Every structure is written in C-alpha cells, then in structure tokens.
Amino acid sequence: MLYELTTLSSHILKLSQVIENAQAYLNHPETKGRWLGSWTSENGRLGAVRVLRGFADAGELSHERTRALFHADPFGASTSECGIEMESYAGFPFLPPVEPGVFGKYYEFRTYWLKSGGLTPTIEAWEAAMPERSKRSPLTLNMYALDGAPRITHIWPWQSLDERIAIRAKSFADGIWPPKGGPEQFYEATSTIWIPTANSPLR
Predict the structure, then answer these.
(1) Number of structural domains in the chain
(2) In the chain, how many H helices and how many E strands?
(3) What is the DSSP string of 173-201?
(4) Banded pLDDT at 136 (limits 50, 70, 90)
(5) Average pLDDT over residues 146-171
(6) Which of 54, 64, 145, 184 is the most buried (most CB within 10 A)?
(7) pLDDT for 42
(8) Which domain holds residue 76?
(9) How far apart are CA 32 and CA 61, in angstroms?
(10) Is this model's pTM higher than 0.90 or not?
C-alpha cells in the first residue's frame, strides 16, 4: 500500500477553517485515494493539520499528486492561506494496509532519518520485533519515504500520554523494544503528538 502524508501549516486561530476546507477537498468526487486520518498538532509546530491517505498503486498516487499540484486550491490551502507539504510513502511490506477505526485519543508520529543503506536492515529489524511489540499496543503504520531524504515515519495511537510512557518503558525493560539493530540505522529522529479531528476516519 502507498500513502501520502500532507501537512497544512497555518495560524493556530485558523485551524477550524483549515480542517473544514481540507475535508471538503478530500470528500470531492474528483479526489482519488482513501482518506485514512486527519489530526491537529499538539506540540512542535502549532496550527498544523496532517492528513493521511492511502493509494492502491503508484499510478493512482502519481495522478492525485499531479492533480493537487495543478489544482487552484489543493486541500483548501489557498482559501485557508496556509502552507502545504505533501510526502509520498510506501508501507513496510510485512504490515497490513491501514484500516480506519477508533484506536486512541492521541497519535504519535515518529520520523527517523536513515543512514545510507539503512532501510533494508530497518525493515528486517521491525519485522522481527513487531510480533512481540504489537502485543503491548497497536501500531497504526510504519512507512518509508519515496521522496526527499531517506526516512521512515511510524504512527502509534494512545489512549493517554501516561499510557505511552508506561508501555514504552516496560517494552524497553523487557528487551523487546527498540527493534534490535534498528536504532543503529538512523542519525536523527523526531516525535510529535497529534489529536484526531472530529471526523477523522482514524481516531
């Protein structure tokens, strides 16, 4: 499965307008792909909205990206007077496609910038570790970038931030996380917390 992660950056007081305009674009009959989720930033850059979409194949993703680039108001960004950034990803091959549902009040987005040649050992490390790690809490998605710098982005839902801290600490103490051999493959990482919008398919 292929994915697109779009980030709309605005003034924090414009968030409701940005969300409304983005959803109108996503729900338009000409818009392709499957809307999987949308969130507002809780830390880091405030006033941001993030949208995740899934695509069946590269042709569908490419067509929709081209349409957005030539569109007069993609995601309502022009009307909302906000910045727009679109990233293309492929899901880790051993993970199932993302399905909408109710999983958490908070979603953590973690991005790791990989060393050259680091993608294959990263995927192998995750594939080995996830059977045990997934027993502790669900993973929404891990995906690798198809454009820009080599990197992966993974998304975790949480009922609370206390739950996040407790589960991550216990997983580390039990030796099942992080994936063995995984941290050696990246040189920089970020973690941000996002809150699902009211109509987000993932929430």
Answers:
(1) 2
(2) 5, 8
(3) HTT--SPTTSGGGEEEEEEEEEEE-TT-S
(4) very high
(5) 97
(6) 54
(7) 96
(8) 2-91
(9) 8
(10) yes
Instruction: Quickly tell me which residue has 């909302």 as its tokens.
Output: 80
Please check whether residues 26 and 86 belong to one and the same domain. yes
CB-based burial, 83-111: b 16+ in 10 Å, e otherwise: ebebbbbebbeebeebeeeebbebbbbeb
Look up residue 61 and give its amino acid. L
pLDDT confidence of residue 148 = 96
What CATH number does residue 78 fall under? 3.30.70.100
What pLDDT is recorded for position 98? 98
Q: Give the residue-averaged pLDDT of 23-37.
A: 97
Last residue of a domain, one of 42, 66, 91: 91
Last residue of a domain, one of 41, 60, 91: 91
* Confidence band of 23 (pLDDT split at 50, 70, 90): very high
Alpha-carbon separation of residue 146 from 116, 152, 169, 178 (angstroms): 14, 10, 32, 24
Rounded (10°) CA dihedral 25, 27, 33, 36: 100
From CA 87, how far away is CA 143, in angstroms rounded? 11
